[in-house]
Amino acid sequence: MDADGSPRLLVVDDHPIWRDGIAERLAAGFSVVGTAGDGAQALRLARATRPQLVLLDLHLPDLAGAEVTRRLLADDPSLHVLVLSASGERQDVLDAVTAGATGYLTKSASLDEVVAAVRSAAAGEAVFTPGLAGLVLGEYRRLVGTPEPETPRLTKRETEVLRLVAKGLTYREIAERLVLSHRTVQNHVQNTLTKLQLHNKAQLVRYALEQGLD
Fold first, then answer.
1. Same domain, 170 and 77
2. Do 197 and 98 belong to one domain?
3. How confident is residue 12, by pLDDT bands cut at 50, 70 and 90?
4. Vertex 206: Cα angle to 211 and 109 (nearest 5)
5. Taking a C-beta distance cutoff of 8 angstroms, is the pair 109, 129 a contact?
6. DSSP secondary structure letters along 85-102
7. What is the number of other CB atoms lying within 10 angstroms of the CB of residue 185?
8. 3-class secondary-structure state, position 54
9. How far, CA to CA in Å, does 170 sit from each of 105, 163, 186?
10. What is the DSSP-derived secondary structure letter of residue 105?
11. The domain that contains 58 carries what CATH number?
């Protein structure tokens, strides 16, 4: 974060009007450290500016968004990537998530929804346009085959929380659904990360997809 506590954000999109408009809107609550129009420029800027979150268009003129995501995370595993794309195709969503994206939003989302999603993704929460998370879970299970039922290393409550994390619910939404405190949900997620030797929410979502948890 910057000195004022604002998350550092890089906006990547090959359409200048859309890119600049989103960057201007997000500048009110985030520290926009730069904008890029293609994947190569995004990688250069990310290395130079060290953002916490990259808001990334999936279809760029030089590199696929999934490939950009993989390279960004190879350079900085603590980085969060939120895809904002015109495509809602499940394969595009699946490619982005398996590459390490924290979430996936379609451009049909309102500006307020984008702002809320960026804030959640910057905090490491999985964010999906409503309906996409379930589609991805089903497709991922089909691709990887029948998973093991459940890892015995997780408690029943931890598995319950993990399922809801994979569906894209925020900590607050999980707390309300399970009648728990926000802090208790955070503790369950942190314990699960430790048990599974994972480092962030994106890896946790990928694990849940692989296990067929929904």
1. no
2. no
3. very high
4. 125
5. yes
6. ES---HHHHHHHHHHT-S
7. 24
8. strand
9. 15, 12, 10
10. E
11. 3.40.50.2300
- For residue 81, give the 3-state DSSP assignment: strand
CA 83 to chain centre: 7
What φ, ψ does residue 199 adopt, rounded to 5°? -115, -20
Number of domains present in the structure of the chain: 2
- N residues, the chain: 214
Strand order in the sheet with 53-56: 31-36, 8-12, 53-56, 80-85, 103-106, 127-128
The 10s digit of each residue's pLDDT in 68-118 is 999 999 999 889 999 999 888 878 888 888 898 988 999 888 888 888 889
Tell me the CA end-to-end span of the chain in Å, nearest whole number: 33
**Could you give the CA distance from residue 113 to residue 55 in angstroms, rounded to a whole number?**
13
The upper half-sphere exposure of residue 145, i.e. CA atoms within 13 Å in the direction of its Cβ, equals 1
For residues 68 and 95, state if they share a domain. Answer: yes
Q: Give burial (CB, 10 Å; 0-12/13-18/19+) of 166.
A: buried
Show which of 89, 104, 130 is a domain's final residue.
Answer: 130
pTM equals 0.65
Quote the Cα angle for 94-42-88, to 5°. 25
Say which residue the tokens 């879970």 belong to: 137
User: 31-36 and 53-56 as β-strands: parallel, antiparallel, unpaired?
Assistant: unpaired
Check whether 143 has a pLDDT greater than 50: yes
Rounded distance between C-alpha atoms, residue 111 and residue 125, angstroms: 19
